[in-house]
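Service request form, structural biology core

Requester: graduate student, group of Dr. S.
Request type: structure prediction, single chain
Budget code: on file
Notes: please return the result as structure tokens.

Sequence provided:
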Amino acid sequence: MKTAIANIGTVLSGDWRAPYASGDAILMETGKIVEVGSLASDAIARCDVVIDAAGATAIPGLIDSQVHNTFGNYTPRQKTVGFLEIYVHGGVTSAISASEVQVTGITRARHIREAQSIRQALIAAGLLAATVSARKETSLL
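Core staff response, request fulfilled:
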């Protein structure tokens, strides 16, 4: 599926050395950006979806640099399920997590071992990303 966002007022690149991208359109295929710039009218006409940005500014997704997710997409401290999906609506598309299991009140060694076992089970089930280092960037999209 091809999607075009046309009539963009300003395109920010996310690169501090060249913060603005030239052009007024973004072309995506299957959810991935394939072109930023000025699109020919026939390229826009071939798209399945065309969004008129009406002069709005396009920016790269934001990064939350300190996320303490617990069990996949659940965080008991905030009593929230689905908080990562909520981030996307606010423009956050990436999160950096220490990838530690944080469960309020677990302090004893036995409970810590149990939490680590739960974490390993979530990793094995593909619900939680395993990390190689202490911190890892995880894309939400």
